[in-house]
Amino acid sequence: MHESWTLLAALSQNTKGARIGALVNGNTYRNPCLTAKMAATLDHASGGRLNLGLGAGWFELEHRSFGIDFKTVGGRLQALDESCQIIKGMFLSGKNHAEGQALQRRRRGL
Fold first, then answer.
1. Strand, coil or helix: 51
2. What number of other Cβ atoms are within 10 A of residue 54's Cβ?
3. Which of 2, 24, 99, 102 could form a disulfide with 55 if both were Cys (CB 3.0 to 4.6 A apart)?
4. How far is CA 14 from CA 20, 98, 105, in A?
5. Cross-strand bridge partners of residue 55
6. Where residue 1 falls among pLDDT bands split at 50, 70, 90?
7. pLDDT tens-digit profile of 11-61?
């Protein structure tokens, strides 16, 4: 089993013109600030070829196996919306600043 971000980094160095990216990255697996930094790094390393796709998460068994809270559909969509705002804000401003109800609850382990 492979981890997509690591695999994409390797692929980016062995291709020259192809766009790279996972079709959808589950938002629930990483802090949005970390996702933004990983995306910016991979985009830079690949010469601007990253396509970033984010989704709310769907695989309950994997969440449970990893010890990640599997929220309701509404809770996951709220967290996705907040993450998209945070990631976009970081891309536009270059600052690491994260707010949002879903992120605050995740930090507290709720």
1. coil
2. 17
3. 24
4. 11, 34, 40
5. 26
6. confident
7. 999 999 999 999 999 999 999 999 999 999 999 999 999 999 999 999 999
